Structure formats: C-alpha cells, structure tokens
Amino acid sequence: MGDVTVLWTSEEAVAATGGRCKTPWTARGVSIDTRTLRRGDLFVALSAQRDGHDFVAEALARGAAAALVSRRPDGVDKDAPLLRVDDVQAGLEALGRWSRARMRGRVVAVTGSVGKTSTKEMLRKVLGGQGHCHAAEASYNNHWGVPLTLARMPAQSDFAVIEIGMNHPGEIAPLSRMARPDIGIVTTVAPAHLAAFESLEGIAREKASIFEGLAPGGTAIVNGDLPTTPILVAAAEAAGAQVRTFGEASTNHHRVTSIRIGDHATVAEGRAWREPVVYKVSVPGRHFAVNAMAVLAAAHALGLDRARALCDLGLWQPPAGRGLREVIALDPVETTHTLELIDDAYNANPTSVEAALEVLAAASVIHGIGRKAQGRRVAYLGDMGELGHDEAARHAALAELPHMARLDVVHCVGPLMRGLYDALPADRRGRWTETAAQMAASVPRDLDAGDVVLVKGSNYMGLSRLVDAIRKMGQAAIASEE
C-alpha cells in the first residue's frame, strides 16, 4: 500500500462501526501502538495492559489521522478527529468485517498447533508472486490481531492470509467467521495448550472450528497424517467444504514421498495436482517441507501458476526466532572459525521440539577448527508451556526421542526442563539452570568453533537471551580486532 492510498475515510468508518465523528478525516493505515504509528494512521485506543485512551493525545501529536475511542480522553481537543464508539474492541472488529466485505480477492486462513506462522509466511511469498497479497504481521492471530489485520487490508488486495490462533475453547470460530476464508488450513494438532483443553481431541475440535467461517464453496486443507484427522475432516464436511488432505501418508491428496534435510535447505518430492513434483524450502526441517505441501494445495485450489508457485516457495526463509540459521564468526582473522546458530526461541511444544531436534541431528558440524577436536551438536532447551497435568512427564520424555542420540550436549533451562535434564544420559547432559539469564552467563564457555547450536523454548522463557549471547560471541571477536 503506497503512502497516497486511502485505506479508510471517516464516512466509511462511521458506516462500518455505527460510530460518531464530527471532524472528517482519511487514514492510510491502522495502528494500536504509538511506538510504531505512522503519520496518517487511524489509532485504535484498545485497552490491554494499559488503556489506549491514555495515548490518544500522543498519537494525534505524532500525526495520526484520527483515533477510534469510546470517550474523549483528557487533554484532547473537542474538535479533534475522533471516531467514538461504545466499545473500542467491538469497533475494531466492525472495521475488520467491513474491510473483509469490501475486498473482492480471496482469503486463506491458517491455524494449527505448530507451523501456522511459517505456513502463513510461505503463503505470503507464493501468493504475493501472483498478485497483491495482504498478510498478518508477526503472530497477529488473536482477538485483536485478526480484526486488526483485516482492518489494515487494502480493498484491492488479490489475496489475504490470516493467521488464527487460540489459547482457550471457543476462540477460533468467531475469528474465522470474521475473516470468511475461501480456504482454511489446519497445519497440525499437537499437545499445545493442553492446560486449557482436556484432550488432544478437544484441541482438534477447536482447530476444526476454523471451517465454520468458510465462504460457500470453500476448501478445507487438513493434515492427513494425524490420529485426529477424522475430526478435522468431519468438521470440514459438515461445513460443506471441499476437503483436501496433505502429509506423508499415501492416502493424502497432496503427499510428500521423500524429504532430504540439508544444512541450509530441505528438498522434497511428492505428488500434487495428481502429478509428481519436486520442491525446495530454503531452511532445514521436515515440518517445513510438509507444510509447504499445504501451501501448494492452497495454490492449486486458487488456480495459481504451478511453476511460479514452486519457484517462489524456494525463496522463502523463516524470520528470526523461528528456525532461522546464521553463521557466527568467532575469529576475525581465521575466517573458518565459526559456529552455526539455529534460532528457534519463539515457541515450543513436544511436536515442534522434535522437529527442531531432527534439524539439529541432520546438521553438519566441522571438526578440527576449535579448541576441541570435534565439532558438536548442542541444544539449549527451555520449558514448554501449557501442557497440562502431565507436563513434567512430557518434558522428561524428550530424552527418548530418536534424534537425541545424534546430539552431543543438551543444556536445559527452567523448572520443567529439570525433568529432561535428569532423564538424559550422563555423557549428553550439559547444564541446568532455572532461568535463561543464568544460562546465558556461561554460553561463551559452552560453545566452540565447528559447533551447531539450537536454541528452542516457549517465548515466556526468554531464551532470546541465549541467542543474543551467542551472537555477541561474534561481536566480541570483531571488537577484539579493532
């Protein structure tokens, strides 16, 4: 969207929300945060940790076109460009629904216990190669993130990709009905958020509720390799959707038959469009290759050019914190003295940890360049949140994963990861600390040139501190040379 594009007029926003506005305005964007607000944005005064009304004056001073409010805040002129509604959250939702109604392109919605953000970004890359594609920023997938993404959507978009998440029962269906997707994708159903659900089947039913919002004649794309696949398929059929399955089993419509995980890419073979297909994603990981097949299934349902979709898929790379790999130079003179970092510190549950360990197990280390003769595969694993009553056992059970046998050292962070630490064989057991800050202090002593290191944990554990500490090992090397 260019700087001169009008996203909302005051007249249209009043019609959408049923609000009241004295001063006309036009907005080029929508913001909920004065720190990232751009001149010409409509500022939405949501109340979360703090009341957004406290920031309206600052937003207007920074160049906001107007503010969506439920009252005139103190210090704001009575003639200021305010759109007044009874409830700001409801007003944002109304803007989202109106924006969806005026958009003539097609919408893809994505949910899943693991992989929804990376799948959304793969879709952004593939769909964006064949038209204007609007997609959510970061993980804007909750009760305010979905309507905000919709409210920011230009009416002329050819495609939109909406990520829908959940923490509790009943959250996905209303967001899906707001987005009214033409295609709904469920990447997987895994034991995440079990604290709020009684069983994996309960999680599957919640994920399947994404199909309740499908537009008439819509397509449901579901992982066909799961014990809970029948729940997903039944819900999709009940919604009148065309059902397409993807995965590695031979029964899937779009199936992956071969996956080769390299150090910097994954190459897969399979069958899509009822024809053989070979494709690449520029990141290691079986789960990326499997979810890429869901992206290809969506591209087929949308009637996109197959060759271009495959090429664009190969160009996608994950953002920081989601499996991004980078080389850290440890010596400014000996340029071969490096280690490799796999930054996956944003989220964790048993399924995603297993996938990340498979990537680490397949990584190529370099021998003979560090203090130690052998390069090593090193993991820093932090607590996995919201796993329910048997969370301690689920952490300890990670020790039994087959890929663990290929690792050299496993460091554990957090009270729950103490269970894994105790279950590890002595020759693989690294250090255990309660917090990421405690672990980060000794990171430079843990690692050496030639190592490949994975950092993986739930976001609330703050393992990004470890990522920063590893990166600083490279910065320290540069500083010592200056």
TrEMBL record:
Cellular compartment(s): Cytoplasm
Pathway per the UniProt entry: Cell wall biogenesis; peptidoglycan biosynthesis
Residue ranges annotated for the Mur ligase C-terminal domain, each copy included: 333-458
GO annotation terms (biological process): cell division; cell wall organization; peptidoglycan biosynthetic process; regulation of cell shape
GO molecular function: ATP binding; UDP-N-acetylmuramoyl-tripeptide-D-alanyl-D-alanine ligase activity; UDP-N-acetylmuramoylalanyl-D-glutamyl-2,6-diaminopimelate-D-alanyl-D-alanine ligase activity
Entry's EC annotation: 6.3.2.10
Keyword Hydrolase annotated: no
Swiss-Prot/TrEMBL catalytic activity: D-alanyl-D-alanine + UDP-N-acetyl-alpha-D-muramoyl-L-alanyl-gamma-D-glutamyl-meso-2,6-diaminopimelate + ATP = UDP-N-acetyl-alpha-D-muramoyl-L-alanyl-gamma-D-glutamyl-meso-2,6-diaminopimeloyl-D-alanyl-D-alanine + ADP + phosphate + H(+)
Domain called Mur ligase central: residue spans: 110-299
InterPro entries in the cross-refs: Mur-like_cat_sf, Mur_ligase_C, Mur_ligase_C_dom_sf, Mur_ligase_cen, Mur_ligase_N, MurCDEF_CellWall_CoF430Synth, MurE/MurF_N, UDP-N-AcMur_synth
All residue ranges annotated as the Mur ligase N-terminal catalytic domain in the record: 28-73
Positions annotated to bind ATP: 112-118
Domain of life where this protein originates: Bacteria
GO cellular component, one term: cytoplasm
Role summary: Involved in cell wall formation. Catalyzes the final step in the synthesis of UDP-N-acetylmuramoyl-pentapeptide, the precursor of murein.
UniProt record similarity statement: Belongs to the MurCDEF family. MurF subfamily.
Protein name as it appears in the record: UDP-N-acetylmuramoyl-tripeptide--D-alanyl-D-alanine ligase
